[in-house]
Every structure is written in structure tokens, then in C-alpha cells.
Amino acid sequence: MKQVPIGVSARHIHLSAEHVEALFGPGYQLKPMKPLSQPGQFAAEETVAVIGPKGRFDKVRILGPARSRTQLEISRTDSYVLGVQPPVRESGDIAGSPGIELEGPAGRVTIEEGVIIAARHIHFHTSEAAAWGIADKQKLRVRVRGERPLIFEDVIARVHDTFALDMHIDTDEANAAGVKTGDLAEILDADN
């Protein structure tokens, strides 16, 4: 049985270094609050407000370190509150996605694109993927056994030497199945 720990991903934002400075001040550096499941990644102490055409969320957690481009990852439910229609995409694929306004203690920024719903995926270290016969970008079927068990299809395998084994789903998906961070999922099969 190929079991994978589940990581439930609440709304969060990745900021470019330029936007960190625009929102928090010149030379500002994010302060790590706690490490995440992926090596070198962290939840920062800092948060920002995100403001859409219909609504806003205050205190959206920033994940670090800074990236080359700013990206807001939300759930479908969040998109209704904000009044935006983001596509379901892999992290980093933001071309043509909606923009949003960001507010920090030192200023405001409007991004022209960068709001997505993250496609569900599993991070594999290269050695784990090889041992299980899984290739990067392969689509998997995965069973979760929460209060309301279900099978997720089209779970994208993301394979890299720096990744640690973890399945990432958003809060809508976790709530639908009744699962939480730390629960286990089982890989059933893969599309070849």
C-alpha cells in the first residue's frame, strides 16, 4: 500500500521580494514562524489583506521565502467571497489568472494576475517516485478515508530532489472528505 501524509492548505500568498518591500517597507525580510512540510519553506509571521471586487480577507498568511512572482492560492469558496474567478492550476502557472489588491502595513499593491486555486498534488522526492514507479506530472488516483471517504482523481505528481512526501489539498477538498493535516491517503493507481 502506497500511503502519503495529507497536508491541508488554507488560503495563503507567496510574495515577490519587490512586493514584500512595497507592503512592508524597503529592505524588509520575512520572519519565519514555522517550517512547512517542504524543505526550506516556511509560514511567515507576516500577513497581508487581500481585497477583491466583492470582499476581502484580512490576515492572509505569507509563505516564504520570497518567490520570483506573487501568487495568491485560495479555495473555490474563497473565490466567491472575493468575487474573482481563478483557474485551477499548478503552483507557478499564473498566466491569464485574475489579479487582486494587496494591503500591508507599509502600502498597497495591485497584481494584474496571480490568483489561482492550486491543483491537488503530491510532492515526491525523486527516490520515492522512482521506487513507486511514478513520474513527474503523472496524474494519480488517491483514496482518502475521512468521515466522508472519497477518491480524488487527477492528483498531479510533482517530483524533485528537494521535495518531501506530502499530498496537498485545499480546505474545500479536505472538508468534503472530512480529513485533516496528518491523515493518510492511499495512492490507488496512475494514468500512464
Automatic annotation (TrEMBL):
It comes from the Bacteria. Its EC number is 2.3.1.222. Its cofactor is Zn(2+). The keyword Acyltransferase applies. InterPro entries: PTAC (IPR008300). It is an enzyme of class 2 (transferase). It catalyses: propanoyl-CoA + phosphate = propanoyl phosphate + CoA. The keyword Zinc applies. This is Phosphate propanoyltransferase. The gene is pduL.
